[in-house]
Design a protein that fits this description.
The structure holds 2 protein chains of 2 kinds. By secondary structure, chain A is mainly beta. Chain A has no helices and 11 strands. Classes of the chains: A mainly beta, B mainly beta.
């Protein structure tokens, strides 16, 4: 199975900060990479698909980049609603696999 | 509006069975692959299984192969997960999700909780 490794596991930030989360795949996955946001007790929400395509309705402060094995999710200016856990997920090779998550907490 | 509503979760003893269902609405169900994803308490996300639009192809994570069966009823806009020989490690919230064309999971239900315990 393809292993997805996110860093950091926890990130402390303030409102207005630029935040970057990294996801690394154990082998090349082209651009078959998605990012999700999850809040406590809620289902995950798709933010980015195909590494850099913004899902409809998602604020433009979210962006994704990368291809091959290294990917990033960037929030250009962190808002109060953005404190949550973020997961990456590859869909190039079955089984789909997720990163372990990055919790973005208030500094 | 896309809606996915799971049901069928509950408490079951180790070795027991449970059948989860997901009712879909707001889109042409027969045009989409559908997945089940689970999340153990305090843990990350684990994709469990998915099924092709017409049900002709199914795929599973190794940990559930031979124990879980995914199926769908396009006439009733529903997808199911039959879970047999349940183990404590199957304890999780189970989400139904609609696959996007590139394999992402673009819509999710609210989840149904499965607890395997004696």
């Amino acid at each position: 199975d393809i292993q997805m490794t996110q860093s950091p596991s926890t990130l402390s930030a303030s409102v207005g900060d630029r935040v970057t989360i990294t996801c690394r795949a154990s082998q090349s996955i082209s651009n078959y990479l998605a990012w999700y946001q999850q809040k406590p007790g809620k289902a995950p929400k798709l933010l980015i698909y195909r590494a850099s395509s913004l899902e409809s309705g998602v604020p433009s402060r979210f962006s994704g980049s990368g291809s091959g094995t290294d990917f990033t999710l960037t929030v250009s200016s962190l808002q109060p609603d953005d404190f949550a856990t973020y997961f990456c997920q590859q869909s190039d090779i079955s089984p789909k696999t997720f990163g372990q998550g990055t919790k973005v907490e208030i500094k | 509006e896309v809606q996915l509503v799971e049901s069928g979760g509950g408490l079951v003893q180790p070795g027991g069975s449970l059948r989860l269902s997901c009712a879909a609405s707001g889109f042409t169900f027969s045009n989409y692959w559908m997945s089940w994803v689970r999340q153990a308490p305090g843990k990350g996300l684990e994709w469990v299984a998915n099924i092709k639009e017409d049900g002709s192809e199914k795929d599973y994570v190794d940990m559930v192969k031979g124990r879980f069966t995914i199926s769908r009823d396009n006439a009733k806009n529903s997808v199911h997960l039959q879970m047999n020989s349940l183990r404590a490690e199957d304890t999780a919230v189970y989400y139904c999700a609609r696959d996007c064309r590139s394999g992402c999971l673009e819509n999710w239900g609210q989840g149904t909780r499965v607890t395997v315990s004696s």
